[in-house]
Amino acid sequence: MSKALSILIFVALFTSCEKNDLSIEPPNNDNFVSAVDISAYPHISSANPTFHDSEGQKAEFLDILKANGVNTIRLKLWVNPADEHSGYDEVKTFSETLKSRGFKTWLTLHYSDTWADPGHQETPVLWQGMSISELKEEVYGYTEKVVSEMNPDYIQIGNEINSGFLHPTGNISSNKENFKALISAGIAATRANSSGAKIIIHFAGIDGSIWFYNQLSSLDYDIIGLSYYPIWHGKSLINLQNTMNTLSESHEKEIIIAETAYPFTLSWNDWTNNIVGINEQLISDYPASPEGQSKFIADIRDLTIDLENGLGFCYWGAELIAWRGDQASDGSVWENQALFDFNNKALPVLKEFKSK
Predict the structure, then answer these.
(1) SS3 at position 171
(2) How far are the Cα atoms of 22, 134, 262 from residue 305, in angstroms, in the given order?
(3) β-pairing, 254-260 with 310-316?
(4) Segment 58-105, tens digit of pLDDT
(5) Alpha carbon 133 to its chain's center
(6) What is the torsional sign of CA 155, 116, 12, 201?
(7) Which CA distances in Å does 32 have to 185, 191, 309, 338?
(8) Which residue stretches of the chain are H helix?
(9) 19-23: which pairs have CB atoms within 8 A and are 24 or more residues apart?
(10) N or C end of the chain: smaller count of CB under 10 Å?
């Protein structure tokens, strides 16, 4: 996600197939990843919002997710954030809670004090000015601590690292070898401290992804992860599926849609401008409606299942309701893409997470 998005939070098929025409069914096992990213939930929960299941009954947020087939929770992790949110202690505590509730955990290490994405890969303040050798040691030690103490099922070495990470030292454009060395440090720390954690390398979008993963062909990772938002990454699920298939076959890796989302309305529930708010940002076959959102995710799920090495998908911002109140100008830019409506009732899309 973008840095601009983070500031507002905190201070969408070119295909003729209808859902019912698809014969692919999700596997009835835990190997298929039906995930949500709810990194902001510890912050949001402090406001004590009330959530309701699809029948309108009051229910606990995590219980609703679990009952609808969500089996994995993705959380971002910042090194030294401005406050406690998405910092080490909060993520560790929440991770333990999630594990106790039967969820698998997927940790996204940004290797930054704030949001990391293709346009922003800021080195943590305490690591700035270090040599490449010193940075490798920091990456190794930090990753080692995370893996050994939090024991994630999945771990991302960086977030949307199209341009590299830990800039300027790890900028892929100016020093590809430094970039690969820093990733390798995180991979080595994971392998040395976990026999089960699967390593994800994460790229935002489709364009450039084949070149990017070709640069990393010698690295020891497990899963290719792609972000896919129609507003930023094109409006063709056919292109998405073809790219995923090419990447998976070329590198003999499992592949996952690491981030995606779609609106159930173009309306607002607070006074904060939303990221998606006009019809031109949508795919024509998927209107901004509960039904359109549900169909989009069903088709995302099914195209992933259709891939020989498809692992699953993750819905980003499932929890981002207008939790600061309907008058907030510094509230959620994502409440029309959450998995709950403006009354905090579970939307039909949640049913698409459950194995059939």
Answers:
(1) strand
(2) 11, 42, 19
(3) parallel
(4) 999 999 999 999 999 999 999 999 999 999 999 999 999 999 999 999
(5) 30
(6) negative
(7) 28, 23, 10, 22
(8) 3-10, 41-45, 61-67, 88-100, 132-150, 176-193, 209-215, 230-233, 237-251, 290-306
(9) 19/295, 19/298, 19/299, 19/302, 22/299, 22/302
(10) C
Lowest mean pLDDT of 25-29, 126-130, 188-192, 298-302, name the range: 25-29
- Residue 322's Cα: distance from chain center in Å? 20
Q: What pairs with residue 313 in β-bridges?
A: 34, 257
Contact between residue 230 and residue 262 where contact means Cβ atoms under 8 Å apart: yes
Residue owning tokens 């050798």: 133
Rounded Cα–Cα distance for residues 318 and 51 (Å) = 12
Please give the helix or strand (H or E) that residue 156 lies within, else none.
strand 154-157
CA-CA distance, 182 to 89, in Å (whole number)?
Answer: 24
Task: List the beta bridge partners of residue 105.
Answer: 73
Q: Which residue has the tokens 């290719």?
A: 224
Contact (CB, 8 A) for 344 and 321? yes
